[in-house]
Each structure stands twice: as structure tokens, then as C-alpha cells.
Amino acid sequence: MFTRSAILGRLRLTLFLFIFISLTSLDGCGLSGNHYAQVDHALQAGRPGEGLAILEEQEGTYGSRSTVLYLMDKGMLQHLAGRYQESNVSLSKAEELSEALYTRRISAEAAAFLTTDNALPYEGEDFEKVMLNVFMAMNYVQLGLWDEALVEARKVDHKLTVMGDRNHGAMTYTKDPFARYLSGVLYEATGNLSEALVAYRLSFEAFEQSRKLYGTEVPDLLRKDLLRITEALGLLDEYESYRRMFPGVIWQPQAGTRGMAELVFVTYAGRAPLKRDLFIDVPFSPEALAVVLATKVGTRRSSGADSRAAESVLYGLTGHVIRLAVPKFVPRRTAVAGAEAVAGGGNSYYEARLATMEDITAIAVKDLDERVVRTTVKAVARAAWKYAAAEGVRRGIRSAVGKKEGGELAGAIAGALAHMVAIASEEADKRSWGTLPDRIELGRLWVPPGTYEVELRYTGGFGVLEKQVVRGVTVQEGQKRFITTRVME
Length: 489
Fold this sequence. Notes:
By secondary structure, the protein is an alpha+beta fold. It has 17 helices and ten strands. The chain has a domain at 4-20 and 276-327 and 375-424. The longest helix is centred in the last third of the chain and has 30 residues, at 372-401.
């Protein structure tokens, strides 16, 4: 038999652990929706520097557990603001910290199993870790540091291989078509056509995989490059093979680019997907089932916060419902269906269409879906522990107060409150790199040396959505000039 003091002691410990695990998600976990909206508004207005200032003012809202996320967002906005060296400092720090957190998480995984992922430092999704190198490569491109850009682009393949091994081959995102294609363009910039061809072959292979996994088609742009480079290198068998594979593709021979310069257009279109809670309510009594069904019907027109509050109260009073929360990506698809660039110089105009090179949303959604079993198992364990702790509170209060002194009622009230807290505090980790685009588009245009005014036109289902003009673009013979733009539509 336990004494009343012993029961109270055990009850205090149970309460402490229960409250700790229920409230560990209250630390800051990223920029608020309102502040992200302000950043988006600044980007929409073409003022990335203003968006960066908003972000830096709100650094404290990220909290100590989301430093990697803050550095990701900061690095992206610095990139868009043309502060390429500073962007690489931020993104490099994010990469280093992310790797350190991964190593630390592996050793602490068992201890952290019953806590919400919000209680753990955010190390980034696998695809986000890859995007760090993609955007560091783009920063080096803008700085004209081709070799450094190539190093970052090659890191992508290595990182994906390592991640595939870590996930025991269960990860389908193993090849990045954009990073491989960018490597080809950069090798061309250094005059190394043989290595460029290797990169384009690998990019073609990656696009074939992306077509099956994400619906990203192989762009004609890449087909033209394979024809152009194999013909230039005298690889006639491979060239003829591509001609048969790509009937109807019109391309310009390498000889036709002599004495020319090249404009390479990279557009970041739309907004990255955001994570939301996917709630799974599990009743285990007929009465609880009736309450869950009634609640879903009665609160479906309510706001999310109102619904959750009502459900927490009703499920808590029932005492026989377990709530699971797992993260789910909600796409924010761009309205841009096509993009073209027109470069005008004197009385001459040159035109190129942009093609989708990276569907970040599709990669993000599939990457998270592939981990649904692990996140669900963890959510089940967490919810079961909370339920057991709430029941422990109910029984502990009932025993401590005593049956004759109203212990049954006191236990019922305490248990209901504990179950309410357990339901209300159940929340998935919704942190994600929100300043990424939905898609990356790319186009190439050979032009005579000179100064150009470039107009980029973005079209949707009902015509032109937006136009952007870049003036004073000067290129010399043999030079490659990258022009990056951001469209939020």
C-alpha cells in the first residue's frame, strides 16, 4: 500500500513530465504567418532588401531551436537582394549546423522519441539540405566564380548519395536535374565541353527519373544541348542516337555560337509549400466515436483555432479519444504556366523560352510522404504516452483525495482537464523553408556582344501575369551572363 504522501509524490512527477512534454512545442518555431506575408509582399513589390530587413527584425521569433531555418530564410533573401557573399555565409552556416544537428540527433533519437519534434532543433528536410548547395552554387555564379559554383553543384550529387544510404535506399529523391544541368552550363563557361557533356547526360538521366516521380518533363533545352555538344565533339554515333531520340528538335550547332555571348535566365517562380497539421482522431469507445463524428460535422465550418479548441474540450470530457498530429505539405502552386525572355539591342530582338528545371513543391511533398510511417509511429507513441499520463493524473487525484472526500469527482475533473491539455497540445512540426520558390525555370539565349534591355514575360491560363524588365545588360564575346528573377504569382 502506498501512503498518501507517496501517492502525491508520484503524482507530482507525473504532472511535471506530462506538462513538460505537452508544452515543449511552445518555443518559437519560425516566422509567423503575418511576417511571412510581409516578406512575400516585399518580394512581390520587387523589394527583397525590405523583406530581408523584416526577417532580421523578427529573428527572435524563430526561437533557439530554429536557427537553421532562420539562416535558410536569411540566406535566400540575401540571394534575392543581390548580397551573394553574405548569402553564402548564411547558407554555409546553415549547412554546418544542420550536419552537426543530424549527428547529435542520431545519438539522442531514443531519448527524444516521446517528445514532439518541435522540441528538437530543426535541421531541415532532406530536400532543403540539398537546396542549400543549389543556392550557394547560384551565388557563386552571380559572383563569376565558376569553379566554386561547380564545387557546390557537385556536392548535391554527393549529398543525395549519402542521404540515400542513411535512409537505406528508401528515398526516391536521389538525382537533382537542375544541379546537374547547371554543372553542364558552368563547364561550358570554363571551355570544358567534354565535362559539360557528362553533366548533360547525367541531367538527362535525372530528368527521366523526375518525369516518373514528379511529372517534370525533359526540357527541349537539354535535348538541344546534347545534340550540340555531341556534334561539336565529333561523337557521331551518340549524336545520331540523339537525333533519332529527339525528332523535330531544332537546335543551333556549336559553330553558330562562335563570336557570340550568352544570356542564361533563371527564374524562381511561386512560393514553396507550407506544412500544416494533419489530425487523426482515434476513438476507442462507441460514445467517443459518436462525439468524434458529431464534432467533425459540427465544426467543419469553424476556423482552425476554434475547431481545435472545441474538439479539445469535447474529447477531453469524453476521455476516450487519442489525437495524432502528423505534418503534411500544402502546395502553393505558382500561376505561371510559361515564361519567355526577349532581349532587345538596337533594332534586333532575340527570344528564348524558359523551361521547368526543378519542381521544389513536388520534391517536398514526396520527400515528406516517404517518411509518413516514421512520423506516424512517433505520433502514436507520443499520443499514447500523453493518454497514459492523463489517466495517471485522474487516478492519482482520486487516490490522493480519497473516495469518501469526493475523490471520484476530483479525479474525473482532473482527468478531463489533463486529457484536454493532451489533445490541445498535440501538434506536428510545421517548420519548413518558406522563402523557397515553387519551381525553378531556366532559359538560354545566344546573342551578339552588346548591351540589351531584357523583358521577361510570365503567362498564365488567361494571358500575361507579369512582366519584368532588366535594363543595361552588357555582354562581351564568349561571356555567359546569368540573370535571376523572382516572380511571386
